[in-house]
Amino acid sequence: MNITVWNEFRHEKESELVQKHYPEGIHEVIAKFLDGNVTTATLDMPEHGLTDDVLNNTDVLIWWGHKAHEEVQDEIVEKVYKRVLEGMGFIALHSAHFSKVFKKLMGTGCDLKWREAGEKERIWIVNPAHPIAESLPEYFELEQEEMYGEHFDIPAPDELLFISWFQGGEVFRSGATFTRGNGKIFYFRPGHETYPTYHNEYVQQVIKNAVKWVKPTNAKYPTYGNYQALEEL
Predict the structure, then answer these.
(1) Rounded-to-integer distance, Cα 20 and Cα 92, Å
(2) Dihedral sign, CA of 164, 28, 86, 208?
(3) By C-alpha distance, which of 132, 225, 219 is closest to 182?
(4) Which residues does 93 contact at the CB level (< 8 Å), separation at least 6?
(5) How far apart are CA 140 and CA 121, in angstroms?
(6) Could you give the CA distance from residue 177 to residue 161 in angstroms, rounded to a whole number?
(7) How far apart (Å, rounded) are the C-alpha atoms in residues 147 and 117?
(8) Using CA atoms, how far apart are residues 160 and 146, in angstroms rounded to an integer?
(9) Distance from C-alpha of 206 to C-alpha of 157, rounded to nearest angstrom
(10) Of 70, 67, 100, 99, the residue nearest 194 (C-alpha)
(11) 131: part of which helix (H) or strand (E)?
């Protein structure tokens, strides 16, 4: 399986605190715990590192973005969108909910409540039989995370896997699956850059499970447009 981990890679260059947790970038931490042929791409690379060759050979694309969503070229967004419809798996992490790609795939504003106060997050597994929940306990906790709260302006998920509770009282649909065309999509909430979230064993397990679940199937991409009759007219 060919996996591409995409990251803005801006916070890590600007903040000593972020550098402390992710000295080589969030993308490199994620890439190291994944199995398969894993490559990384970042915003400031030519074509954001997502050339036609890279996208055409990517089975699963993992996306982390936060402060520079608007800098992603619309042409690249369209190419990623097309590849998802064709069957490429897509995993949106944390603030990638506001990325151009995820918003286009969802067709909604994808807005939410947020607060950065370093509070506890308790993530409840509400669909324990799902493959993405494999090897997880009934819940797990992150001692410090950014709060995301409902209402989360997304379409009704195909499957809701996780619900987060925060120390301040809010709840959030923090793990959800969608299908678009032939492509499978997973959104996973944790991952604010100032906390060591991607070093957590359960967070890593979720992402590893998700990669296996969103990977392409052998389903043939449908034929669209004008079509010749199968029977004699």
Answers:
(1) 23
(2) negative
(3) 219
(4) 62, 63, 64, 188, 190, 191, 207
(5) 8
(6) 8
(7) 8
(8) 21
(9) 17
(10) 67
(11) none
- Of the CA atoms within 13 Å of residue 46, those in its CB half-sphere come to 4
pLDDT tens digits in sequence order for the chain, 233 residues long: 999 999 999 999 999 999 999 999 999 999 999 999 999 999 999 999 999 999 999 999 999 999 999 999 999 999 999 999 999 999 999 999 999 999 999 999 999 999 999 999 999 999 999 999 999 999 999 999 999 999 999 999 999 999 999 999 999 999 999 999 999 999 999 999 999 999 999 999 999 999 999 999 998 999 999 999 999 99
Q: How far apart are CA 114 and CA 117, in angstroms?
A: 10
Integer CA distances (angstroms), 188 to 67, 132, 224, 230, in order: 18, 11, 32, 43
What is the pLDDT, as a whole number, of residue 44?
97
Which tokens in the block code for residue 150? 């409902």
Looking at residue 17, its pLDDT comes to 96
In DSSP terms, 177 is beta-bridged to 159, 186
Give the pair of three-digit tokens for residue 34: 């994944």
Question: At 31, which helix (H) or strand (E)?
Answer: helix 26-33
* Sign of the alpha-carbon dihedral angle for 18, 21, 23, 25: negative
**Distance separating alpha carbons of residues 199 and 106, to the nearest angstrom:** 28
Any idea which residue has 């967004």 for tokens?
77
Model confidence, pTM: 0.97
Tokens of 81: 């969108």
